[in-house]
Amino acid sequence: MSYAYLFKYIIIGDTGVGKSCLLLQFTDKRFQPVHDLTIGVEFGARMITIDNKPIKLQIWDTVKNPSDPLPGPNRGAAGALLVRETFNHLASWLEDARQHANANMTIMLIGNKSDLAHRRAVTTEEGEQFAKEHGLIFMEASAKTAQNVEEAFIKTAATIYTKIQDGVFDVSNESYGIKVGYGGIPGPSGGRDGSSSQGGGCCN
To answer: What's the structural domain count of the chain?
Structure first.
């Protein structure tokens, strides 16, 4: 199916927070309670619609330690889903993502497993405050019940789309994690940040 834009996402966070389960719930609409630990990189894709335009989301889920550099497939993303249960390593993940991405990457902080309220380590208010302090979007979700899973992925995409309309991105430069398809609007030679259109593509 053709698309107006392709947005590349990365899913990051500690092992066991439910990154792969969120991806599976969004792409396949199912929950797999026993999920093999991701080895290397997992990939998923799904079409959504924003402003009557078909948008393809290309989503990469990688296992790594917060101190390790991001692997090649995880660089140059338009959006990142930072998944957490606690605040452990959260600042490290955020710093790592921003170090290897453009300054305008949209980051959604997801407090997963909202269905397990009795095991909550971080309150909603604490999550909202962290997101506000670091310029993130915040949402609580549950890969098990599917609560807010769809909304988290789509809200991230809607924010990216708005930035495109506002001229924030040079969409001719695929290193931003955005690829223009049929019906998309090619960007100018330089985006609002003055970047050149020169750059390697990372979305296929």
So the answer is: 1
